[in-house]
Amino acid sequence: MVGRFAPTPSGRMHIGNITAMLAAWLSARSRGEGIVLRIEDIDVPRVVPGADRRIMDDLDWLGLDWDGGPSYQSRRTDLYAQILEDLRDDGLVYPCFCSRAQIRAASAPQEGDRFILYPGTCRRLSENERSARLACGDRHSWRLAVPAPGDPDGLVGFDDRVFGPQSFDVGADLGDVVMRRSDGLFAYQFVVSVDDALMGVDDIVRGRDLLRSTALQQWLRVRLAGLGIGSGTVPAYAHIALLDDPHGKRLAKRERSTDMGAMRAAGMHAEDILGVAAWALGLLDRPEALSAQDALAMFSWGRVRRDDVEIPPALLAGRHGSAGDGTGR
C-alpha cells in the first residue's frame, strides 16, 4: 500500500495540518509501507511563494519522512486536460454556464461541510444549445455527470478506520461537482482523484470534513479506471477529528499563532509539537513530548479519537518537557 502527504502551499502548516500529517505517516509506517509527497498547488492564486520549501523543511525537522516526490500538481496540467477530454468523450462531463449567484439561488443549503448541490440546470440543455453557447465563447465550467439520486450506480460505501461504515448517494449528497472551473483552473476533486489513481495511493488519511468528498472521489476513481487510469479499487480510508480554537472555530492558516513558524520561533522542539499532535489524535491522555518513532510504537487506529479537539493557546506557547506543564527539559 502507498500513503501520501498532500499539503497545499497556501501558507505555513499549522498544528491541525501537522496532526493530519502525523496520522498519515503513522498509518503508512505502521504497516511498513511507503508514503509519497504531493504538493497540491493547482489553485495557483492561493499559492504562497516558498511555502512548499517550508513545508518540506518542517516535515523533515519533525522526523516525518517520505519516499517519493515531491510532485507538483501545477506541472501536470496537460495531463489533467487530456483526462478531462477523455471524460468528455465518454459523456461523463458537460459544460455549465451558470454563475455562482445563479447556483446559490437555485440550490438548497447543505449542512456540515457547506456543500452546495448543483440543481442540474445546464445538464438539461440540449446538445445543440451547448454547442451554440460554446461556439459563442460563453464562459463555462465543466461538471461531472453523476447518477440521479436513488440510482444504484451512484451508491458508494467504504469502511472508515475511525468513523466506521459510511454510505453515500453521490447524486443526492454531492450532485454534479465542478471538474474544471470557469477561470480554467482544474478543481480539487478532479485532480486529487486523478493523482491518487495514477500514483497508486491506497492509504488515505485526512480530516473528517472530507468524508463526503471521499465518496465522490471513489466514484470518480472507478470511472477513471474504466478509461485505464488506476485500478478503481477502494483505498483504506481514515478521517480524523478536526482541531478547533477556544471559540470552536476550525484552525486555519490565517491564525498565525498555531503555525509552524510561530511554534518554532517560540522555542518549541519537534518532540513538543508532535506530542500535541499525538494527544490531539488520542494516542496520549495529555500532551507530552515524544518523537515520531515514539508515536509509532503506540499507534493503532483503535486509539484514535472521533470527537473534535480544542487546542488551548498555552499548549503552543513555547518549549516544555511534558507539553503544556511548563516544567522545561
Automatic annotation (TrEMBL):
Gene Ontology biological-process annotations: glutamyl-tRNA aminoacylation; tRNA modification
Alphabetical UniProt keywords: Aminoacyl-tRNA synthetase, ATP-binding, Ligase, Metal-binding, Nucleotide-binding, Protein biosynthesis, Zinc
EC number: 6.1.1.-
PROSITE patterns per the UniProt record, alphabetical: AA_TRNA_LIGASE_I (PS00178)
Cofactor: Zn(2+)
Database matches in Gene3D superfamilies: HUPs
GO molecular function, a single term: zinc ion binding
Keyword Cell membrane among UniProt keywords: no
Cofactor note text: Binds 1 zinc ion per subunit.
Residues bound to L-glutamate: R4, F5, A6, P7, T8, E40, Y188, R206
Source taxon at top rank: Bacteria
Enzyme class: ligase
Residue positions of motif 'KMSKS' region: 250-254
Short sequence motif 'HIGH' region: positions: 7-17
Binding positions for ATP per the UniProt entry: K253
Keyword Cytoplasm carried by entry: no
Domain Glutamyl/glutaminyl-tRNA synthetase class Ib catalytic: 3-260
Binding site for Zn(2+): C96, C98, Y118, C122
Coiled-coil ranges per UniProt: none
A GO cellular-component term linked to this record: cytosol
Residues spanning the membrane: none
Function noted in UniProt: Catalyzes the tRNA-independent activation of glutamate in presence of ATP and the subsequent transfer of glutamate onto a tRNA(Asp). Glutamate is transferred on the 2-amino-5-(4,5-dihydroxy-2-cyclopenten-1-yl) moiety of the queuosine in the wobble position of the QUC anticodon.
NCBIfam families documented for this protein: PRK05710.1-4
Protein family membership: Belongs to the class-I aminoacyl-tRNA synthetase family. GluQ subfamily.
Name listed for the protein in its UniProt record: Glutamyl-Q tRNA(Asp) synthetase
Originating species: Bifidobacterium cuniculi
